[in-house]
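Suppose a colleague, Dr. K., hands you the sequence of a protein chain of 129 amino acids and asks what its three-dimensional shape might be. Before reaching for any lab equipment, you can write down a predicted structure in token form. Begin with the sequence itself:
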Amino acid sequence: MGIFDSVFGKKEKTTKEKKELPWIQLASLDQLETITENSKYKPQVIYKHSSTCGISRMVLNMFTESYDMDLDIDLYFLTIQSHRDVSKAIEDKFGVRHESPQLLIIKNGEVVFHTSHGAISDTDFTKYV
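The predicted structure, expressed as tokens, is then:
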């Protein structure tokens, strides 16, 4: 215990344990075929994130905190600045205009739900999986 701790009283820091989601990094065009094929057996979720956008970071934090770890889905994470080609291919393949942040749910090879920006944290997307 330091001198200032004894004079001013040591304050306990409470640190919230950071939740680690089961992300699969989406980094190649080949993975889109895997996602399409696997969506026949279980829902595939793509989260498109902008590493340079404060709103995207805030929405990701809210999504992480509210995520149900018991879901049986494949959860893909795409950083658009690193993989613009993949982001564009998602738009072309699934017919959903690019936005970020953006969440897409794919079942049987098709997007059954998508949303973006703050609506991601406002949506109970589990009813679509």
